[in-house]
Design goal:
Blueprint lengths: L8 H11 L6 E4 L6 H12 L8 E6 L2 H13 L5 E5 L13 E6 L30 H11 L1 E12 L8 H8 L4 E9 L8 E8 L11 E5 L5 E3 L2 E3 L2 H13 L9 E4 L1 H6 L20 H29 L1
Parallel strand pairs: 1-2, 1-4, 2-3, 4-5, 6-8
Antiparallel strand pairs: 5-7, 6-7, 8-11, 9-10
Helix pairs in contact: 1-2, 1-6
Pfam families: N6_Mtase
Catalytic activity: a 2'-deoxyadenosine in DNA + S-adenosyl-L-methionine = an N(6)-methyl-2'-deoxyadenosine in DNA + S-adenosyl-L-homocysteine + H(+)
Keywords: Methyltransferase, Plasmid, Restriction system, S-adenosyl-L-methionine, Transferase
Length: 318
């Protein structure tokens, strides 16, 4: 994670809600940065009456300076049950053969692999792709999924490219199709300095070796933004509703932005995971010309009445 790539606070809170962490679990963030998601997880546990240090946090980042800030950030919030390691998660993973109940990551966007590591062809983390993709998004996600325990959940933030690109990335999507639980398309401009649209993918690794096909919850939340100065954010209400939607599969307050998509339909759409392919943005409300004329006439009448009242008041002063 680069220093200038910081997970926005509202996204960290959404991550924490979707992870559904419980005491005794192990959580990995291999692009931990300043540990904002961990702090959001800890606060959520505290609000639920649980001890945040009942979860063991494991993190990795390429920058020692960033990890120093992360350590201070965690300590200031009373989080002591953690381990931080320096290194590149792709070339120098620090997790070995460990398994984690939860995995979360918000890696740097648009990182391209200019010189492929020949060893990646035989790396068990990347066997879902016959040829490792040049774009790093799926390499990061495959790394995280490779250490996810059976029955565990992973949540990743990514740009939209990995959700629809062809070639090796399509093969990866086919490979992990039965792990995918939900994809949430989020509003643009959630990150300072960029108007990129991002998506959130939720994976649940089957607890056994079942090959049963599952439906995928597609959520198009691209319009559910609130303003915070020049930036967009996710409101607390939207965060709670999106989390409820993923957990329960329904929300009477958000009926028009989600749809369950079966694996056959995904295959018919070239295994695209873009929610906009399945859930269309509702058409904006267009007022009729008759309604506009009626409102204008009413406004003109109100203005005339106000002008008459003002004239009468001025006449009375003379």
């Amino acid at each position: 994670m680069k220093v200038d790539h910081i997970t926005p606070h509202s996204l960290a809170r959404l991550n924490a809600a979707l992870l559904d962490i419980r005491p005794g679990m192990r959580l990995l963030d291999f692009a931990v940065g300043y540990a904002g998601t961990w702090v959001a997880v800890a606060k959520r546990l505290h609000d639920q009456g649980e001890n945040p240090n009942s979860v063991y946090f494991v993190g990795q980042d390429v920058s020692p300076k960033v990890l120093l800030v992360a350590t201070c950030h965690l300590m200031l919030h009373g989080i002591t049950s953690f381990q931080l390691q320096t290194g590149d998660a792709l070339t120098d993973p620090q997790t070995d053969a460990s398994r984690f109940d939860r995995v979360v990551a918000d890696p740097t966007f648009g990182l391209h692999i200019t010189a492929r590591n020949d060893n990646w062809r035989y790396d068990p983390r990347f066997l879902a792709a016959r040829t490792p993709p040049r774009s790093a998004e799926w390499l990061f996600m495959m790394h995280g999924l490779s250490v996810l325990a059976p029955g565990g959940r992973a949540v990743f933030i990514t740009i939209h490219g990995p959700l629809f690109r062809s070639g090796s990335e399509r093969e990866i999507r086919k490979f992990y199709a039965n792990w995918l639980t939900a994809v949430v398309a989020l509003p643009r401009a959630l990150y300072p300095g960029t108007s990129l649209a991002v998506a959130l993918t939720v994976f649940d690794r089957p607890a056994d070796h079942s090959s049963a096909e599952n439906d995928v919850l597609m959520i198009n939340a691209s319009q559910l933004r609130a303003k915070d100065g020049r930036h967009n954010i996710l409101s607390s209400e939207v965060i709670d509703r999106l989390a409820k939607l993923v957990v329960s599969g329904s929300d009477e307050e958000l009926p028009a932005i989600h749809e369950f998509v079966d694996q056959a339909r995904l295959a018919d759409n070239d295994h695209s995971w873009q929610p906009s392919r399945y859930v269309y943005e509702p058409a904006p409300y267009v007022r009729s010309l008759e309604d506009i004329r009626s409102d204008l006439a009413a406004a003109q009448k109100t203005a005339q009445q106000a002008a008459s009242a003002m004239k009468a008041a001025l006449d009375a002063l003379e």
